[in-house]
């Protein structure tokens, strides 16, 4: 950081660190032990809407990459758009395959980044649910290199803020938690967060 940046209070943006995603399995153990939240097997990657043949080609590359890695039939990644115009790629695994899901999310982010879509990457999330049926997502902010929890109230566009704060404090040793609460976006309608 230069002298003028320090003088005017500007800071350099945090460089994305996709390897932070590999902390999610450890955080999942903490979540299960302390709060009873277990992985759902769902995870997704969000990026700003992209039109045209270039994105279609990258989407096909991502699907081919994950098909090759998983050895499964079918389409492991589902593409969709939310009501706000953001594009999502949803990966599905069984709940006990969390490390594989995290690897898939890392691969999707890396492939999009390698093909020039890094500036459009917004976030990735991994879904959890507890015995009471409450849903939780750990959201990774690509441009910040940090995580935050989203705990939705079932059937409503409402969040359980006390539980989010509790979970964030619980996971501080496992994940880099986003300190700016104004960046804890609700991600309504995101694939991977079950109602």
TrEMBL record:
Q: Which domain of life is it from?
A: Bacteria
- Name of the protein in its database record: DUF695 domain-containing protein
Name its species: Kitasatospora phosalacinea
């Amino acid at each position: 950081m230069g002298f003028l940046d320090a003088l005017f209070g500007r800071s350099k943006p945090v460089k994305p660190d996709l390897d932070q995603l590999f902390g999610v399995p450890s955080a999942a153990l903490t979540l299960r032990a302390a709060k009873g939240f277990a992985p759902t097997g769902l995870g997704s990657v969000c990026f700003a809407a992209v039109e045209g043949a270039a994105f279609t080609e990258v989407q096909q590359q991502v699907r081919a990459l994950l098909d090759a890695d998983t050895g499964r039939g079918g389409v492991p990644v589902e593409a969709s758009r939310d009501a706000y115009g953001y594009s999502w790629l949803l990966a599905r695994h069984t709940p006990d395959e969390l490390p594989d899901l995290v690897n898939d999310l890392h691969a999707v982010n890396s492939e999009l980044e390698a093909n020039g879509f890094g500036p459009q990457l917004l976030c990735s999330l991994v879904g959890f649910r507890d015995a009471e049926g409450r849903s939780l997502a750990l959201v990774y902010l690509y441009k910040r290199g940090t995580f935050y929890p989203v705990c939705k109230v079932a059937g409503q566009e409402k969040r359980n803020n006390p539980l989010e704060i509790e979970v964030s404090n619980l996971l501080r040793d496992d994940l880099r938690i986003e300190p700016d609460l104004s960046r804890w976006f609700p991600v309504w309608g995101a694939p991977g967060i079950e109602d």
